[in-house]
Amino acid sequence: MVFDNDGRLVSFKGKLIHSLNKNEHALEMAAPVHENFGDADGLINDNASVKKRTDLLLLGDHLGDLEMSDGLDYETRISVGFLNDNIENNLSQYRKAFDVVYMNDAPMWGVVKLVSQMLKYPYYAISF
After folding, report:
1. Which is a Gene Ontology cellular component entry for this protein (predicted)?
2. Is 0.70 surpassed by the pTM of this model?
């Protein structure tokens, strides 16, 4: 992002990941990632290690966000939906589409707990 002298965002540098291109192609546009958490020396210049991962945690606030995993080669996907608008009319659809649904601008504690369980039980012996 590029800001002017007053701190206002005036433009974006590089390629932008947005709601219409959040899929496997976004990996090509993403910044390089660290192979190991907290390891600044572990910087890699491509996203090959991300593409090799077979487990996926997908977070979205729209049914269309489920398409973010299209084209990815994964074994396990856990999808978390955030339903904030028109809850009565959309809840049934969200429950069918997402593995977990949080409502009313729920805090991220549920997702943090889910990730903690995933790390503790690597074979996803998790109850929802």
Report:
1. cytoplasm
2. no
SS3 81: strand
The reply to whether 71 and 124 lie within a common domain is yes
How far apart (Å, rounded) are the C-alpha atoms in residues 125 and 123?
6
Are the CB atoms for 79 and 96 separated by under 8 Å? no
Q: pLDDT at position 49, please?
A: 66
User: Is there a single domain that holds both residue 35 and residue 63?
Assistant: no
- Ramachandran angles phi, psi of 39, nearest 5°: -105, 95
State CA 112 to chain mean position distance. Answer: 13
Tally the domains of the chain.
Answer: 2
Task: Domain of residue 26: give its range.
Answer: 9-52
Q: Which helix (DSSP H) or strand (DSSP E) does residue 100 occupy?
A: strand 100-103
pLDDT digits 0-9 by tens, 28-66 = 665 554 444 444 455 555 566 666 778 888 999 999 999
Q: In terms of residues, how long is the chain?
A: 128
* 72 belongs to a structural domain: yes
Extended beta strands in 12-99, E state: 55-60, 76-83
Cα–Cα distance measured from residue 37 to residue 35, given in angstroms and rounded to the nearest whole number: 7
